[in-house]
Amino acid sequence: MTVQIVAITTTNSDVGSALDKYLSVVGPLMQSAGAKIVSRFELRDSIAGDNEIKYVSVIEYTDVESVKLVFDSDEYKSLEEAKRQAFSKYQVSTAVTM
């Protein structure tokens, strides 16, 4: 059974090498887990509420084990400092269709 993941992020204004490091690790991890980006959005003008969130991505994993392959890996866990430097908002959640 596939698993949908929603990533809600905002990058810091001076992301530089921290974002490059994050992407260079997460990209190959996702690829090895067979994950695919279903859709990606850049949020522009907020109609209601604040403008704190900049990006929303929906990623599909083949199963729970492939999600764990990425998020439980030592490589992903080593990114805490890069995430802190690159993102002012960073939330990754599982999603279910309602």
Describe what you observe in this structure:
This protein has a single domain (3-95), classed as 2-Layer Sandwich (Alpha-Beta Plaits), CATH 3.30.70. The chain is an alpha+beta fold and 98 residues long. It is flat, with a radius of gyration of 14 Å. The chain contains four helices and four strands. It has a four-stranded antiparallel β-sheet. Helix 1 packs across helix 4 (80-86).
Q: Main beta sheet: strand number and arrangement?
A: 4 strands, antiparallel
- Cα-to-Cα separation, first versus last residue: 16 Å
Q: How many structural domains does the protein architecture include? A: 1
Rg from Cα: 14 Å
State the total count of DSSP E strands. 4
Average pLDDT confidence is 94
CATH topology: Alpha-Beta Plaits
Q: What sort of overall outline do the alpha carbons produce when their principal axes are compared? A: flat
Residue runs with pLDDT of under 50 for 5 or more positions: none
Proportion of residues in β-strands = 25-35%
What's the topology here?
Blueprint: E1 3-11, H1 16-33, E2 36-42, E3 55-61, H2 64-71, H3 74-77, H4 80-86, E4 87-95
Antiparallel strand pairs: 1-3, 1-4, 2-3
Helix pairs in contact: 1-2, 1-4
How is this structure best summarized?
By secondary structure, the chain is an alpha+beta fold.
